[in-house]
Structures are given as C-alpha cells and as structure tokens.
Amino acid sequence: MSFESVKEFEQKIADFYGAPYGIAIDSCTHAIELCLRYKDVKKFTTPYRTYPSVPNLAKKIGIDFEFDEREWTGFYNLGNTNIVDGAVWWERNGYVPNTLMCLSFQYQKHLSLGRGGMILTDDKEARDELKKMSYDGREPDVPWRDQNISTMGYHYYMTPETASLGLEKLPDAIETEARVWDIQEWPDLREMDLFKDV
After folding, report:
1. CA distance 118 to 70
2. How far apart are CA 22 and CA 12, in angstroms?
3. Taking Cα atoms as reference points, which of 120, 81, 119, 116 lies closest to residue 97?
C-alpha cells in the first residue's frame, strides 16, 4: 500500500490553507488529541457550544478543563493553548500562524470524506513528531522493522484510500462556497448529564 496519495493530500490541503505543513489524521478528534499530548497540556477551556468530543477528550486523557462563554465563528483555540479546533473551518489562506490547527473531513463537513482530519502547522519539529505519533511512532517511508521506535504512537493515520478520495473531491470543494456554521447549532453542553460536574 502506497502512502504517496497521503503525502499529496497533505500538501494540497496545506497549500490551500496557506500552512507550511499538514499531517493527515483519521479524524479531527484524534488530531486534537495528538496535539494535546504533544504539547503536554494540563488544562484547557473550551466554549460550551462545541462538539462533545472535545470535552470528552479531556476526560479520556485526564486533562482538566472548563467551559467558557466565548462566542466563535469558524474556529476557536483551546483556552490558553495554540491548539485550534477548526473542524468547520474552510477558508483559502485560513491557517492561523503559530498554531496547531485541526481540521475535519467528516461526512457533514465541506470536504466530505466520511472520516478524516488534518493538523496544520508552521513548526517543522511539531510536524515531524506529530506525524510519527499518528503513525504508531514510526518514521514515514522506513519499514518499521528497521527502526528503533522512540516515540509513543497512536495509530491515528489517514489511509491512502481516504486521501485518494480527498484528492478526487478537493477541486470541487475549492470551487464551492463553504457553509458558515452558526454557533447555535451546537447545544449547551453544560446541560448534558456527562458534563454537569464541570
């Protein structure tokens, strides 16, 4: 199985957003998780109107979090971190410098691949480490049996099949105006039983 389609997809998405590097992931939620782990985040805040996977991540990996009252359009950062949840953000040259911007290609998103995500960054060291983390700790393009793996890996990489679909659908996505999501489309998570103790 060739990962050339993944590399091409990473480059084309990074070019569209105006970011130096892209790391293709199997979902936006896993993209955010990798960034939280990479930055060793201990606590973050998130708007109370967002997708539940974000606060669920905090519970899953043992990070303290709080809801905040922020209004947002397109994307938001996780509190005082440079990690950006851009799951519904589709904008040419829309990358925010000095961030780890996480994108979604889930079936409801503008570039709809059924599943998939991306981390955009301008930090080559972060790019290299996050790529390894997404791919079982492995260096790309080297058989794993020939490596001394030193990075904890999470098996969150995008498959070549998903990347190939992305390359096929990307031209139409670029030419089509993206939907602007309304913050009211997300319910108040504070009212849900799982998050009432936050």
Report:
1. 24
2. 9
3. 120
Provide the 8-state DSSP code for 157: B
Q: What is the pLDDT of residues 35-78, one digit of tens each?
A: 999 999 999 999 999 999 999 999 999 999 999 999 999 999 99
Residue 36 belongs to domain with CATH number: 3.40.640.10
Nearest to 158 by CA among 21, 22, 26, 11: 26
pLDDT in tens, 95-153: 999 999 999 999 999 999 999 999 999 999 999 999 999 999 998 878 889 989 999 99
Would strands 100-104 and 83-86 be described as parallel, antiparallel, or unpaired? parallel
Q: What domain range is 82 assigned to?
A: 4-195
Residue 135: Cβ within 10 Å count: 23
Query: How many domains is the chain partitioned into structurally?
Result: 1
Q: Where are the alpha helices (DSSP H) in the chain?
A: 4-17, 28-39, 53-61, 124-134, 160-175
Beta strands at 76-77 and 83-86: parallel, antiparallel or unpaired: antiparallel
| Spatial CB neighbours of 83, under 8 Å, sequence gap ≥ 6 | 32, 35, 36, 39, 41, 44, 77, 99, 100, 102
Is 39 in contact with 129 (CB distance < 8 Å)? no
Amino acid code (one letter) for 151: T
Number of H-type helices and E-type strands within the chain: 5, 7
Spatial separation of the C-alpha atoms in residues 41 and 80, rounded to whole Å: 10
Q: What confidence category does residue 1 fall into, taking pLDDT thresholds of 50, 70 and 90?
A: low
